[in-house]
Specification:
This protein is of the alpha/beta class. It has 3 domains: 1-166, Nucleotidyltransferase, domain 5 (2-Layer Sandwich); 176-266; 273-343, no CATH class. It is 53% helix and 15% strand. It has 11 helices and 10 strands. It has a 5-stranded mixed β-sheet with strand order 3-2-1-4-5. It has a 5-stranded mixed β-sheet with strand order 8-7-6-10-9, covered by helices on one side. Strand 9 and strand 10 (321-324) form a beta hairpin. The protein starts with a strand and ends with a helix.
């Protein structure tokens, strides 16, 4: 017997969850785990049935979910907007917020795909074929009927592929540095999301610890063991607070770096030029270069190099490079030498 078709909902993060429902809306899989890698998520799904659509609760499909869908050979369903918390609580259920989000994502897709599901059931009955086979053809934009079953009228009435995702334009050619910066931005966005998720978990843990501390404080303080427990939990709470502060600082720095890369990429796309920032004295200086050191600038400029201080140009600074809209022309080399000799 072939596997039953499934709609998959995934909630990615440091703690991930996966939910699977069949075409009757019944939950066949609901599982979450900390450090739940994509390979194990895929294994769980395949053990349960045949995935035909993969979705999440975000209007912008998370890269982790998109990669899992691609590995499974399934289509993606993207909601018009992020599912609100009240909506997720109404639709989903599970032992934690991650399972609730995953289940709500799958059920939301199921509710919005009723027209397509009815068509799959109709063609399955008419052609006496498994729903999985019909669903595969339907969602992969293949003819529902085989050639020996088709005629001109049926081809005209054949349903169109579900609009689960906007068609993607062909990938335009980009230079390697621009492509590297786009990948860096995506990586930073994922880091921000992971840091936010970890902060949320830490804050929830802090709330639970505060509740326990308050409860212990309200009870009989004459019991020595209770006093020791209070001290222990307060120390743990202090450590957790320190970790949250550390994560907040790291998140702030990551968001600043992400914003700089976005500005640089935009300026580069508008015709900006990528210029290296020189940090030490060297004989190998590019035709155009920048430095953050006024002293280094004077020394290299005196030797005839076309180098400017970063504050002399309008630029977006990165770590080793800056994107500049217009770089000044090189100064007259002979004049620079004369000025340098006079200064000595």
């Amino acid at each position: 017997m072939s596997k039953k078709p499934l709609i998959i909902g995934i909630d990615p993060g440091s703690t991930s969850a996966v939910a699977a429902i069949n075409l009757q809306g019944e939950i066949k899989l609901l599982h979450s785990s900390k450090n739940f890698p994509p390979s194990q998520i895929i294994e769980k799904i395949i053990e349960t049935g045949k995935p035909i659509v993969v979705t999440s609760d975000k209007a912008k499909m998370p890269s982790k979910v998109d990669k899992i869908a691609s590995s499974l050979g399934a289509e993606t369903y993207v909601p018009d907007r992020d599912l609100e918390q009240d909506k997720k609580k109404e639709l989903g259920h599970g032992e934690n917020s991650h399972e609730i989000d995953a289940a709500a994502s799958a059920i939301n897709a199921y509710n919005n795909m009723q027209r397509e599901i009815r068509k799959i059931e109709k063609f399955s009955n008419e052609l006496e074929e498994e729903k999985t086979v019909i669903a595969d053809r339907y969602f992969s934009n293949q003819p529902i009927r085989q050639q020996n079953q088709e005629n001109k009228e049926e081809q005209e009435q054949e349903p169109q592929k579900i609009n689960v995702e906007e068609s993607r334009p062909e990938k335009e050619e980009v230079d390697p540095e621009k492509e590297r910066m786009e990948a860096k931005i995506q990586n930073l966005e994922e880091q921000v999301n992971e840091l936010k998720s970890e902060m949320g978990e830490m804050e929830a843990e802090n709330d639970r610890l505060r509740g326990k501390v308050d409860k212990i404080k309200e009870e009989d303080r004459q019991e020595v063991l209770k006093e020791q427990e209070i001290t222990k939990r307060e120390a743990k709470l202090k450590k957790k607070n320190s970790r949250i502060q550390e994560l907040e600082e790291k998140l702030e720095k990551t968001e600043i770096r992400e914003e700089q890369y976005k500005k640089a990429l935009k300026k580069l796309s508008n015709g900006g030029e990528l210029i290296e920032i020189v940090t030490h004295r060297t004989d190998q200086v590019p035709d155009k270069s920048l430095t953050r050191s006024e002293e280094l600038k004077e020394k290299l400029e005196a030797r005839g190099f076309n180098i400017r201080h970063v504050e002399e140009v309008e630029a977006v600074e990165l770590e080793r490079y800056a994107v500049v809209e217009e770089f000044p022309k090189a100064k007259n080399f002979r004049k620079v030498i004369d000025e340098y000799r006079e200064s000595r």
